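User: Here's a structure from my thesis project, written as structure tokens. My advisor, Dr. K., wants to see whether a designed sequence matches the one we expressed. Can you design one independently, without my sequence as a hint?
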């Protein structure tokens, strides 16, 4: 078969002058050039002429006395490159959208023509009969374009009315990131839609068994044997923990609702035993750490052990990971236990009135894990479009959660001094502190997102956030004391020397800050993500308290200052190869949303329910607001 194809190819590519056959068209064209009498390519150094471009380029490269890189003016331009600069440099496929899928999922600027223009500016282009004087081609300069449009696909999907669209937006975005980094090859970028992730959701959430292959599974039997990473318990211990989980949920249901609750429904032991299995534990733990962890990095992955972690936290991770497989049958079955899991976690003694008294509040490792579990369950239940559930989260669970975080002093928590030794104890102390810092930071950001999504006054004041900001990801995720010390020495500091309160004050200050301002010197993209959450809290609070017309100027100035910092920090991080993760990739969308809220409030545009000063139980009004203001 191959021989016949080769013979056919030889018959197709044949020289008209000497009847010589060639395998490819490019070989034929190079050969035909040797038959021409024109000697149109001239070496600028020795005046030697060539009819073939490849021979001329090879000669000039050796003949150039100073090693200058020289190319000859093309006789006929080829097809113009359509890929963006980043995809062109990485030599990967590009969908040519503005921005393209790969740049959007990596959270980087998508530009066209800049790479080509910068490359051309370093070349000396020589035409036929010209000397070696530099000639810069201007054909590409007119076609260059920098994309200024802000993509809002993630924000639109996040606010789409209906159940579990928020978790879908997060998981789809994580799936895209895996695909662009080479972890998933089953989907091509050209097949992705450019609006609202709709087509990609269908591909990702296909409930057929083959959909598990996208996550590294081939069948339910093989899935039980697959080893993903260190997050695996021994089978016997895992089975015991699953039994404890079923027993705890059943006991809580009987205690709170009895056996015939019309609100919660009967608790099915058989269904619980079918859902809470060792195989699903492995599957859902993997789903959480590979799909949602970057959006809520409050758990220390290197030391996470499902055999020893507290049961509430393991339950929350289990249920969070189940959303990775939505809407499969097992995910729908796990959804039946969301409400009782919420009750189980928030009935913990840490959320009691006595524990919330600051004079009696105590901080233990188990308490922090319960707080982490509560935050995960709040996020899970926020996905539910049931108005009763959302009102319970808004009016009961969120105030209780924030009060407990405040009572434990986490909003003002700071790192303790750490000695310079690569000691396991020092590393453990750092992890102990950093987990608390991160829990407080993400509690604040969740409160801010709740305020924006549902038109609420924020529960956390910016002035409360006087604790440390989270450290760099590489430091927190170091898997040994020695690696921790290496990362610490590379960055010289474990935590940033400023708080969110100081950073927000810097953005809102009336005076123009100097270039050597201490806050400006140490700013990073995670800090700016928290800062834009602070600004959106200020904007929503001003709107809800009729202060927006007067506060619009201050907030606009802070937003402009934030955007300038973001552009500068992003450019620097891209140059050093640092990739944005989680909500950092969508911080500019949040910035755009705050701008639109301020603009609408300043112009007193009250069209639509979202700009009213009443709390909401649905994201439908916010979704409509975004669509109306989308460029």
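Assistant: Designed independently from the structure alone:
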């Amino acid at each position: 078969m191959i021989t016949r194809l080769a013979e056919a190819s030889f018959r197709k590519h044949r020289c008209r002058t000497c009847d010589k056959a060639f395998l490819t068209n490019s070989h034929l064209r190079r050969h035909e050039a040797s038959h021409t009498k024109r000697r149109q390519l001239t070496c600028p150094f020795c005046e030697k002429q060539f009819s073939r471009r490849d021979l001329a380029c090879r000669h000039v490269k050796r003949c150039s006395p100073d090693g200058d890189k020289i190319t000859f003016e093309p006789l006929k331009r080829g097809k113009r490159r359509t890929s963006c600069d980043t995809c062109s440099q990485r030599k990967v496929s590009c969908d040519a959208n503005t921005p393209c899928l790969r740049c959007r999922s990596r959270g980087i600027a998508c530009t066209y023509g800049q790479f080509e223009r910068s490359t051309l500016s370093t070349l000396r282009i020589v035409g036929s009969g010209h000397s070696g004087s530099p000639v810069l081609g201007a054909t590409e300069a007119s076609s260059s374009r920098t994309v200024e449009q802000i993509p809002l696909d993630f924000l639109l999907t996040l606010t789409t009315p209906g159940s579990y669209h928020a978790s879908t937006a997060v998981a789809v975005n994580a799936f895209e990131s895996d695909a662009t980094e080479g972890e998933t090859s089953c989907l091509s970028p050209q097949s992705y839609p450019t609006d609202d992730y709709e087509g990609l959701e269908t591909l990702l959430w296909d409930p057929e068994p083959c959909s598990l292959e996208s996550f590294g599974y081939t069948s339910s039997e093989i899935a039980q044997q697959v080893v993903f990473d260190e997050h695996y318990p021994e089978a016997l211990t895992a089975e015991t923990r699953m039994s404890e989980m079923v027993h705890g949920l059943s006991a809580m249901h009987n205690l709170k609702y009895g056996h015939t609750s019309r609100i919660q429904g009967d608790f099915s032991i058989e269904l619980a035993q079918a859902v809470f299995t060792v195989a699903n534990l492995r599957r859902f733990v993997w789903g959480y750490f590979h799909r949602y962890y970057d959006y809520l990095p409050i758990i220390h992955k290197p030391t996470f052990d499902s055999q020893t972690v507290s049961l509430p936290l393991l339950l929350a991770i289990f249920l969070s990971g189940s959303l990775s497989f939505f809407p499969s049958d097992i995910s729908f079955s796990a959804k039946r236990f969301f409400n009782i899991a919420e009750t189980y976690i928030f009935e913990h003694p840490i959320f009691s009135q006595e524990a919330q008294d600051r004079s009696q509040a105590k901080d233990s490792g188990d308490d922090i894990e319960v707080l982490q579990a509560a935050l995960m369950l709040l996020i899970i239940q926020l996905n539910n479009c049931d108005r009763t559930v959302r009102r319970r989260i808004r009016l009961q669970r969120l105030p209780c959660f924030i009060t407990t975080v405040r009572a434990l002093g986490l909003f003002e928590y700071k790192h303790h001094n750490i000695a310079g030794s690569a000691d396991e104890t020092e590393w453990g102390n750092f992890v102990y502190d950093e987990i608390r810092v991160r829990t407080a930071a993400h509690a604040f950001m969740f409160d801010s997102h709740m305020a924006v999504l549902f038109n609420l006054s924020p529960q956390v004041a910016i002035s409360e956030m006087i604790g440390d900001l989270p450290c760099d990801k590489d430091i927190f995720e170091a898997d040994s004391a020695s690696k921790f010390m290496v990362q610490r020495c590379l960055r010289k500091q474990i935590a940033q020397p400023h708080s969110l309160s100081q950073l927000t004050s810097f953005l809102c200050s009336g005076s123009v800050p100097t270039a050597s301002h201490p806050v400006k010197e140490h700013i990073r993209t995670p800090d700016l993500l928290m800062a834009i959450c602070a600004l959106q809290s200020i904007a929503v609070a001003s709107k809800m308290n009729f202060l927006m017309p007067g506060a619009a100027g201050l907030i606009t100035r802070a937003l402009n200052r934030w955007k300038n910092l973001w552009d500068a920090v992003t450019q620097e991080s891209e140059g050093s190869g640092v990739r944005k993760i989680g909500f950092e990739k969508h911080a500019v969308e949040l910035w755009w949303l705050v701008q639109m809220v301020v603009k609408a409030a300043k112009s007193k545009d009250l069209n639509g329910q979202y700009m009213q000063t009443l709390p909401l139980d649905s994201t439908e009004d916010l979704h409509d607001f975004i669509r109306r203001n989308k460029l």
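When you compare it with your expressed construct, this may help: Confidence is low (pLDDT under 50) at residues 116-148, 179-233.
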